[in-house]
Specification:
The complex is a heterodimer of chains A (about 210) and B (about 180). By secondary structure, chain A is mainly alpha-helical. In chain A, about 75% of the residues lie in helices and about 0% in strands. Chain A has ten helices and no strands. Chain B contains nine helices and no strands. In chain B, α1 packs across α2 and α3 packs across α4. In chain B, about 35% of the residues are buried. Classes of the chains: A mainly alpha (about 210), B mainly alpha (about 180).
Chain lengths: ~210, ~180
């Protein structure tokens, strides 16, 4: 088939309309939040003392970390799914969440006596943390990988990893409402491991699933 | 790549997305020429037929045109797709370059016209289900309209459009995989 002939066929198919990618991303995030929320409320749900907990800095700081992670990953994945789009600004924002966590850890180390560091780090339910963040995040991750297929990422593995970070940030936001361990030491360790698992899964998904 | 090109191409693609078929044909022809130049400059050691990359890029632009933001420049988008398809093609065929070196030397001695060699796209076309294949080749190779194709095959125009759309999407997907 000559290129000239191919153009005829493409032109005849011009009328077909697909949803613009930017709009589709917002829709995908909406669906992902609903799915993550459904899994969260159907399984562990929020902790019973959530109302008083909301008046403590440590509890609320968890949401700052996870939401900043999710927001920065969302901006980056949107840029990564468009060929030729500039990603440098979105990349720079990815440092925000880790930086906030590091800052909180340093503050925590100042405030809490050294004897309690270990206890705060280990917490009371790290296994639940490490299993439920991936469990809540797996549905959103599948949606985001599907979105990468719908888009056109020129770096599929990296974009897949960012899909994992986005799913992880979202899942951790829900999970944080359940978790009793509010210390930044706990969050910096176990949340990170759980989100890293989703990130790895996302990178693998990007490698094998996101082809275009 | 000039500012004038950019403005004109953006205008054409916006019009095309709004449903202007003539603007789309114009856009695709210009893009084909630009990508052909780009790919020929980039392919220096052979192993990959530039026209295959041109066709693969056009298909990708077509099936991914919803990823272009109408307020963003169009050329960086086009070249990013072309570069991605080129790298992909090299990676797929990388292992065969050494084996085919004699054949490549011959190909390179020939002038740069669009040859009628066996194209990757033909393999992808042959892999389609018969209904889609007859629609796609009627419109492309035979140059018939949607209406003429519908009359010839005895199906509705809607069915032709659906088969065409699915066929093109399937070709775009298979392009890389059917290549050897």
């Amino acid at each position: 088939m000559r290129t000239e002939d191919l153009i005829k066929a493409l032109d005849a198919d011009a009328r077909d309309k697909a949803m613009p990618l930017g709009k589709a991303w917002w829709l995908a995030v909406g669906v992902a939040v609903v799915i993550a929320g459904a899994v969260f409320f159907a399984t562990i749900g929020p902790r019973p003392d959530i109302m008083p907990a909301m008046h403590t800095m440590r509890f609320m700081s968890k949401f700052v970390f996870t939401l900043v992670l999710a927001a920065s990953a969302f901006a980056l994945i949107r840029a990564l799914s468009v060929p030729g789009a500039s990603t440098s600004r979105a990349m720079a924002w990815m440092i925000a969440a880790p930086l906030l966590v590091v800052l909180a850890v340093v503050l925590e180390l100042f405030v809490v006596p050294e004897a309690d560091w270990g206890k705060r780090l280990i917490g009371s339910n790290m296994m639940i943390c490490m299993s439920f963040i991936p469990l809540i995040g797996i549905g959103p991750l599948a949606i985001f990988l599907g979105m990468l297929r719908y888009g056109a990422p020129t770096r599929p593995v990296f974009a897949g990893a960012v899909a994992g970070l986005l799913a992880g940030g979202l899942a951790a936001t829900f999970y944080a409402a359940h978790c009793f361990d509010d210390s930044p030491l706990f969050v910096a360790t176990w949340y990170t491991i759980a989100i890293a698992f989703l990130t790895l899964l996302g990178a693998l998904g990007g490698r094998f699933f996101v082809r275009w | 790549m000039t500012g004038k090109d950019e403005a004109e191409l953006s205008r054409l693609l916006r019009a095309a997305i709004a449903g202007d078929e003539r603007a789309y044909a114009d856009f695709l022809h210009r893009i084909a020429a630009l990508v052909r130049g780009f790919v020929r400059r980039k392919i220096v050691q052979g192993g990959v037929d530039p026209e295959d990359i041109v066709q693969e890029t056009l298909l990708a632009i077509h099936v991914k045109r919803h990823t272009w933001r109408p307020d963003a420049p169009v050329l960086p988008w086009v070249y990013a797709i072309a570069r991605f398809k080129l790298i992909d093609a090299f990676r797929r065929r990388g292992r065969r370059i050494e084996v085919e070196i004699d054949e490549i030397a011959e190909t390179f001695a020939e002038p740069e016209t669009e040859t009628v060699s066996e194209r990757d796209i033909n393999r992808a076309l042959d892999g389609l289900p018969p209904a889609q294949r007859s629609v796609v080749s009627s419109i492309s190779v035979d140059g018939q309209s949607i209406g003429e194709t519908a009359a010839k095959l005895g199906i509705s125009e809607t069915a032709v459009r659906v088969s065409l759309h699915r066929g093109l999407a399937a070709i775009a997907k298979r392009f890389g995989r059917t290549a050897t």
